[in-house]
Specification:
The chain is α+β, with helices and mostly antiparallel strands and about 525 residues long. It has four domains: about 180 residues, no CATH class; about 90 residues, PAS domain (Beta-Lactamase), CATH 3.30.450.20; about 70 residues, Helix Hairpins (Orthogonal Bundle); about 140 residues, Histidine kinase-like ATPase, C-terminal domain (Heat Shock Protein 90). It has a five-stranded antiparallel β-sheet with strand order 2-1-5-4-3. Strands 7-9-10-12-11 form a five-stranded mixed β-sheet. Strand 11 and strand 12 form a beta hairpin. The protein is rod-shaped, with a radius of gyration of 45 Å.
């Protein structure tokens, strides 16, 4: 593990230092092979040859020790780099001495080592390394003069080499700073691009429309979750296989981009979609961005806005109607209690009372439209609750119901709301069934981790043209109905995170299904 001193250096610095050490070891091997191939010729005597072998061996052993230190990250990076540079300087200057001083040309080997040290260091020690090399060169030249192998006028060559060492070190330092700045800029650009990609992905997933990117060969390159939900399957591969209706619309648009695309209906989800095509290239035959707009969602939102305004209006009217309605009902009851009332009078008062009760029921249903958000959900064991409900409903309506429910079925629902929904569905089912034992039945089962409750009756199925309007407010096929029962039941289920839908059983009859604990995304 790296220590504290190496915590300020990246892994790239350590890898560069390891490469420099490998270069040092390979250089030693190359120099040794060259000297062996030249067979003592550059070296004056056997003693110098032995000194060279000892110097090369020590430097090679140190290179192996340096490799171990780099692997363990001990000591710190700056210390290891300075020690290695000092070792290189001593080795090369020693080689110069053995080969006859500066005239041998070995001193120029200092330059690549100084350049490499300047590139991989942080820049603060680069000139120090050049100073070490200069001191070693001048010291070796002074020793040559002291031994009588050179004159005092020969300082020009080592001085120029010292100047070259400082120049190479300074240039490597500047290149290292430039490379470091470029690396930091590239890293920041990478972070910005990654953040931008995440932002685009988040926007793509949260957009209310389905989004697809299709190339010129009809292959889907990208899609969001909304497109998967609208289509009902994962759009991958070729668009023609995943979404045939969209592929047909895209083909028509490629032929005539100015024409408005027609509405399409998906086969699995049965949703009505409005596609929009945007070319991502210079013509309509390249990559295309496809937006799938859910018209059913737009209709629901428009209906919610309309119903919100209508609900406020009807609530005010309902409160205003209740006062005179109570007076009319009370007056009709007083007229019916008259002892000398004739049969005609009693029949008329009964008509007034029946219609007053119908208006009271309608006003109550209208007021329920604004109370569906008052939810107090609790844990309900369906078997116990349905057993109690079946007993209550059977006792009041004098009927025999069928019930099938697992013992472990448990949901979260407002008990009062559940009673209201089940009573409404049961009354509707009993009204249209064949009035036999078991004609109305309840069945609970599990699907995809959600409990499902089916209210089934053996009466005639709902007409296909009426199924699309079945849950719309004020839609009814009964002359005395308000058309709010099923709408309120569906709204109550939605407020309790459930879904109420109509299912046409394959064996006949009619079935209303409640899926508990599930509410599909609307946007």
């Amino acid at each position: 593990m790296p220590n504290t001193s190496s915590a300020f250096h990246t892994e790239m610095h350590w890898r560069s230092l390891a490469l420099l050490n490998v270069f040092r070891l390979l250089s030693n091997i190359g120099i040794f092979c060259s000297i062996f191939w030249l067979a003592y010729k550059p070296i004056s005597d056997v003693e110098s040859w032995r000194s060279f072998l000892a110097l090369a061996s020590v430097d090679s052993v140190l290179a192996l020790l340096f490799a171990l230190g780099i692997h363990r990250r001990r000591p710190g990076f700056e210390i290891q780099l300075s020690i290695q540079v000092a070792t290189d300087v001593l080795f090369i200057v020693g080689m110069m001495h053995l080969f006859g001083g500066l005239r041998s040309g070995i001193g120029t080997l200092l330059l690549p080592y100084l350049a490499a040290a300047g590139l991989i260091s942080r820049g603060r020690m680069t000139l120090f390394h050049a100073a070490m090399a200069s001191i070693a060169l001048l010291s070796e030249q002074t020793w040559q003069i002291w031994q009588g192998n050179a004159s005092g006028s020969d300082y020009l060559s080592p001085a120029l080499l010292c100047v070259a060492s400082f120049a190479v070190a300074w240039l490597a330092h500047r290149l290292a700073r430039f490379a470091q700045a470029s690396e930091a800029l590239a890293e920041q650009r990478g972070i910005d691009l990654a953040n931008l990609g995440q932002l685009n992905q988040r926007i793509l997933q949260d957009v209310s429309d389905g989004v697809l990117v299709v190339d010129d060969h009809g292959v889907i390159r990208q899609c969001n979750e909304q497109a998967i939900r609208l289509v009902g399957m994962h759009p991958e591969g070729v668009l023609l296989h995943a979404m045939p209706v969209v592929a047909v619309a895209l083909a028509r648009w490629r032929v005539n981009p100015s024409a408005s695309p027609n509405l399409i209906t998906t086969a699995l989800t049965r949703k009505t979609l409005r596609p929009r095509f945007i070319s991502l290239s210079h013509d309509s035959h390249g990559n295309v961005l496809i937006y799938l707009e859910d018209l059913d969602k737009l209709r629901r939102e428009a209906q919610q806005l309309k119903l919100a305004a209508l609900g406020r209006l009807t609530a005010n009217l309902a409160h205003e109607i209740r006062n005179p309605l109570s007076a009319i009902t009370h007056a009709a009851q007083l007229l019916g209690e008259e002892p000398d009332a004739n049969p005609l009078m009693k029949r008329l008062t009964r008509i007034i009372d029946d219609n007053s009760q119908r208006l009271e029921h309608m006003v109550k249903d209208v007021l329920e439209l604004n109370r569906r958000d008052r939810v107090q959900m609790t844990q309900i064991k369906l078997l116990d609750w349905l057993t109690t409900f079946v007993g209550e409903f059977s006792a009041q309506e004098k009927i025999e119901l069928g019930l099938a429910c697992p013992m472990d079925a448990e949901i979260r629902f407002d008990p009062g709301h559940l009673h209201q929904v089940m009573w409404n569905l049961s009354r509707n089912g009993w009204r249209y069934c064949q009035k036999k034992p078991g004609s109305l039945s309840f069945k609970v089962w599990s699907e995809n981790g959600h409990w499902v409750l089916d209210v089934h009756n053996d009466g005639p199925p709902v007409a296909s043209d009426a199924q699309t309007q079945l849950f719309e407010p004020f839609f009814t096929t009964e002359t005395k109905g308000t058309g709010l029962g099923l709408y309120i039941a569906r709204e109550i289920c939605a407020a309790n995170s459930a879904v109420l839908e109509y299912i046409a059983p394959p064996d006949g009859g009619a079935c209303f299904r409640i899926i508990f604990g599930y509410l599909p995304r609307q946007g």
